[in-house]
Design goal:
The structure holds two protein chains of two kinds.
Chain A: E1 3-10, H1 18-25, E2 31-34, H2 41-51, H3 59-75, E3 78-81, H4 88-101, E4 110-114, H5 122-127, E5 148-153, H6 158-165, E6 170-173, H7 178-190, H8 197-210, E7 238-242, E8 247-250, H9 261-268, E9 278-279, E10 284-286, E11 291-294, E12 299-303, E13 306-308, E14 313-333, H10 337-355, E15 361-367, E16 386-395, H11 398-405, H12 411-414, E17 419-420, E18 430-441, E19 448-451
Parallel strand pairs in A: 1-2, 2-3, 3-6, 4-6
Antiparallel strand pairs in A: 1-7, 4-19, 5-14, 7-8, 8-12, 9-10, 10-13, 11-12, 14-16, 14-17, 14-18, 15-16
Helix pairs in contact in A: 1-3, 3-4, 6-7, 7-8
Chain B: E1 2-5, E2 10-17, E3 20-27, H1 33-39, H2 42-48, E4 57-62, E5 67-72, H3 93-98, E6 101-104
Antiparallel strand pairs in B: 1-6, 2-3, 3-5, 4-5
The chains are: A alpha+beta, B alpha+beta.
Chain lengths: 452, 108
C-alpha cells in the first residue's frame, strides 16, 4: 500500500528556525509543510504591504528557502506553506529569484495559490447582500467597513491539489487552512475523491495533529514534562500517511522530544470546540471517531476517522482598527509586596479619574500571584518576596492611552517603597486590530493558481 | 470519600477561540476517564474558574481519547488583541484546571 511522509516545519511565524532544516536533512520525507499564519498575522502583513507593495508575506520563509532549496531539489521534496500571507505572488517571485541564483531554477516549479483576499470587494459584497455578519454577535460588518484592515477567506485544499497535479514542487499560498497543507498532498498522492468525507476528515485531522509543530512531539506537554528527553534537539512531527486512511505520527530517528498517545492527544484537543463538528472548508471532521494507539517508540497509529460533507460557506477572517492599548509594569518587593502593588493600582486609578482619562477597560494584575490563575492563586501573604505590578488600559481615546504611558514611572517617587523595574522606559501605545469572524457563500470566492 | 487533585489523574491543554478558551482534560490512564466524566462537571468547572470565566461552560465528551473538552466562554478579557491579560490566549488555563480537587468514592 502506498504511503507518504509529510513533515511539519513551522507551527507559527516565529517558530524554531532550525526545525524545517532538520526535517529536510535528518531523515526521509516527501513533503514539508509550514504554517505561518495566525488570525491577526494577515493584518500585520497587510500593513507591511501598504508601505511596500513587494512585502506582505512571511519573510522567514524566503530566508529558509535560500538555505534548503538545494536539499529540496536533490531529494525531490515538495513544500507547501501559507507563507504567502497577503502577497503570495511577491513571495513566489522572491523564491524564484533565489532558485535561479542557486543554479537550480530548472528543478523548481513554484505555484502561488490565492484568491483569499476579499478586502477590496467589501462594498461589492455588501451591495450583493453578503453582510459578513459576525459569527458571535450576528451583527453585519456595514458600520465598520471603513475600519477594515484585512479580510481573508480560509481556502481549502483544492488550489494546492491543482498545483501539485500541475507539477509544482514549491506551493506558496495565502490564507489557506493549516490543515489543508497536509490534506492536499494526501488527496494528490492517493487519488482520494474530495467528496470522500471520511478521507477528507482523515487528512484534516492529520493536519491538525502536526500544524502546531512540536506541540505534538513533546513541546508544551503537561504529562511528565521533565521526563521528555533532549528538548534542545526536539524532533518536529511527521505524518506517515497510508492510502487506506490510516496514518502514523512519528519523527526522525535520533531527535529529541517524544511522540506517544499522550503527547498526541494533547495536541488533538488543542483549540477544539465541539469535537463532533470540526469545520474546515474541505469537510466536517469528527474527533470523537479517532482511534489512537501507541505503535512503537515515538510512533502513534491513528485510524477510523469519520467525516461529514463540507458546508456551503467559507470562514472569513476580517481585522479592523478598534482603538489603542498599552501595558506598563513595575516590581515591588518584600515586605508587603502584594499590598504595595495593590495600593499602586489604586493610586493610578485615582489619578486617571482626576485627569479625566477615558478607557474602555483597565486591568491590574500581580504577576507571580494572580495574573494567570486569578482567584485560584490570589494571596495576601506579606512574605511573598516580590511581585510584578502590571497594569493595562484599552480605549478609543488615543490621548488617554498616551497619557497613561506617562503615569507609570512617576509611581517610583510618588508611591509605595521598594519599587524597581522601569529600565525599559515608557510603555508603547499599540493600535488594536480586532478580529471579526464571518461566513461567506463559497460561490462568491474563486481560488487562483499561478506558476512561477 | 477521598480527595484527589486532577493533576494526579489527568493531563490537559488549553487554547483560545476568540474570547472563549478551551481546555481539553485527558485521563492519564484511560480507566480513569469515568472519574473525570462523573466528577468534573461543567458546573464544577464554572465555579472553579470564578472571576476568570464570565460566561457559560460547555462540556463535550471524547471517550475515544479518554478526554473531556470544556469551552469557557467570555474568559479572555475580549480575546485576541483586545485582551489586556498576561494570558490573553488562555494557554495556562489547562494548568489552572489541573489544580481542581474532586471528592471521589474511597474505593476508586
Amino acid at each position: 500500500m502506498k504511503s507518504i511522509r509529510i513533515a511539519a516545519g513551522q507551527g507559527f511565524w516565529g517558530d524554531w528556525l532550525e526545525a524545517p532544516k532538520n526535517q529536510v536533512r535528518q531523515g526521509p520525507i516527501d513533503y514539508l509543510i509550514m504554517d505561518y499564519l495566525a488570525e491577526l498575522t494577515m493584518s500585520i502583513m497587510m500593513k507591511q504591504k501598504r508601505k511596500n507593495p513587494l512585502l506582505g508575506y512571511a519573510s522567514d520563509f524566503v530566508d529558509l528557502m535560500s538555505e534548503i532549496l538545494p536539499d529540496i531539489a536533490k531529494k525531490n521534496i515538495k513544500v507547501l506553506s501559507n507563507a504567502g500571507g497577503v502577497n503570495p505572488v511577491a513571495c513566489a517571485k522572491a523564491v524564484r529569484e533565489i532558485a535561479n541564483k542557486l543554479g537550480i531554477g530548472d528543478k523548481i516549479k513554484i505555484a502561488a495559490v490565492y484568491g483569499d483576499d476579499i478586502s477590496g470587494r467589501i462594498n461589492e459584497l455588501l451591495e450583493k447582500g453578503h453582510l459578513l455578519k459576525n459569527m458571535e454577535t450576528g451583527e453585519p460588518i456595514t458600520a465598520l467597513k471603513d475600519q477594515i484592515q484585512s479580510a481573508n477567506v480560509y481556502l481549502g485544499a483544492d488550489g494546492m491539489v491543482e498545483a501539485l497535479k500541475n507539477g509544482a514542487n514549491i506551493i506558496i499560498a495565502g490564507r489557506v487552512t493549516d490543515t489543508g497543507l497536509t490534506l492536499a498532498p494526501m488527496i494528490h498522492e492517493f487519488g482520494w475523491s474530495m467528496t470522500d468525507w471520511d478521507k477528507m476528515a482523515t487528512g484534516t485531522i492529520a493536519g491538525h495533529t502536526i500544524e502546531c509543530g512540536a506541540q505534538c512531539s513533546g513541546g508544551n506537554c503537561s504529562y511528565q514534562w521533565e521526563s521528555i528527553p533532549d528538548m534542545a534537539n526536539v524532533g518536529f512531527p511527521i505524518i506517515e500517511a497510508h492510502e487506506d486512511g490510516t496514518f502514523f505520527v512519528t519523527k526522525h530517528e535520533g531527535t529529541g522530544g517524544r511522540i506517544d498517545i499522550r503527547t498526541v492527544k494533547e495536541q488533538l484537543v488543542y483549540e477544539m470546540g465541539d469535537p463532533k463538528s470540526y469545520i474546515t472548508p474541505d469537510c466536517i471532521a469528527d474527533f470523537s471517531s479517532i482511534q489512537i494507539a501507541d505503535a512503537g517508540p515515538n510512533r502513534v497509529k491513528i485510524w477510523g476517522i469519520k467525516g461529514q460533507p463540507k458546508t456551503e460557506f467559507y470562514k472569513v477572517s476580517i481585522s479592523y482598527v478598534d482603538g489603542w492599548k498599552a501595558v506598563g509594569t513595575l516590581v515591588y518587593t518584600w515586605p508587603d509586596a502584594v499590598k504595595k502593588a495593590k495600593v499602586a493600582g489604586e493610586i493610578l486609578r485615582a489619578r486617571f479619574e482626576k485627569l479625566g482619562l477615558k478607557f474602555d477597560d483597565i486591568l491590574t494584575e500581580l504577576v507571580g500571584v494572580n495574573s494567570c490563575h486569578g482567584a485560584l492563586t490570589d494571596s495576601e501573604d506579606p512574605n511573598i518576596p516580590e511581585v510584578t505590578f502590571r497594569i493595562g488600559v484599552r480605549g478609543h481615546d488615543q490621548k488617554s492611552v498616551e497619557r497613561f504611558t506617562r503615569e507609570i514611572a512617576p509611581l517610583i517617587l510618588t508611591g509605595p517603597p521598594s519599587v524597581t523595574g522601569f529600565a525599559g522606559g515608557r510603555p508603547n501605545v499599540q493600535e488594536i486590530l480586532a478580529y471579526w469572524p464571518a461566513l461567506i457563500k463559497k460561490e462568491t470566492v474563486q481560488s487562483v493558481v499561478d506558476y512561477f | 470519600m477521598k480527595i484527589i487533585q486532577l493533576k494526579d489523574i489527568a493531563h490537559a491543554r488549553s487554547g483560545d477561540k476568540g474570547d472563549s478558551a478551551n481546555v481539553g482534560l485527558i485521563a492519564i490512564n484511560p480507566e480513569n476517564f469515568s472519574i473525570l466524566q462523573k466528577y468534573v462537571t461543567a458546573k464544577k468547572v464554572k465555579e472553579h474558574f470564578k472571576g476568570i470565566c464570565l460566561g457559560e461552560v460547555e462540556r463535550y465528551e471524547l471517550p475515544n481519547l479518554g478526554a473531556l473538552n470544556f469551552m469557557l466562554h467570555n474568559s479572555l478579557g475580549g480575546g485576541g488583541t483586545l485582551s489586556l491579560k498576561t494570558d490573553a490566549q488562555g494557554k495556562t488555563y489547562a494548568a489552572a484546571l489541573l489544580r481542581m480537587f474532586i471528592e471521589v468514592d474511597e474505593n476508586l
